[in-house]
Model the fold of this input.
Amino acid sequence: MRFNPKPSALSLFFNPIIMVLCGAFLISFSAVWVKVAGVPATTSAFYRVFFGFLFLLPATLAIGELRKYPKAHIRPITLCGIAFAFDLVFWHASINYIGPGLATIIGNFQVFLMAACGVVFYGEKLKKRFLLALPLAITGLFMVIGFNFADLSANYRLGVFFGLMTAICYTVYLILLRNIQSTPNTHFRFAPLMFISLISSLSLAPAMLATDTSFAIPSVSSGLALLCLGLFSQCIGWVMIASAMPRINASLTGLILLLQPSLSFLWDVLIFGRPTSSLQWLGVTVTLAAIYMGFTGSRRK
Done:
């Protein structure tokens, strides 16, 4: 008789599906930390990547990735870091105007932009479900924000616009990162995210100085929120997701990652008391389902 020992708790934790689930759970609090920090969008974006860099640097040094990282990647990783800096500024601004949940859902419209770029630049083909997903996602979004867009306040409309700009910048970031990570024999766990965090912080600091944006952290609670943003969102959460994603099916990854915007909206309701009608809950469900359909509706040639 063959003996099959029970898996240990540690082996279960390093199961790729569990790792992606935990990573998505951790980054679902990103918008919450931004809201709690109560600082300008550029300030919270700066401290997210700056603290993330400080946490990632010793890990990168400990496993020797820093000296092995190819110099040819410096230029594309620099562009990647700049794109990520813009992504964070727009997203954090959107959070301040329309709340953590909706800002995160709109930012995830990058799925449709990524699929369009896949068709144009990588020769991918779209399935019928993608063609259905896009109008479905837009309908779901209008169910959440209201069909009379012109009647919304100027700040609310600006928040929606910033959310859409987040999706555009996030798409640029992901395309650049995809090209970097697609280089043969260059699989790194910490170095890419460490360099992206460093370059993003170096990009944001001059922008803050030019616009007279304060670096000041107003309170202990604000500082703790920014530390959590750097540690759990920029560092641990994304390292877990990036390490596990290559080991599981892409469509399953897309489904699991929908946990992030779903929970972000839930935290917005539970923590910040966002008023949400039955129609808006239906709109959230429709939008998230459409985003998943969009993720699985593109395929390589």
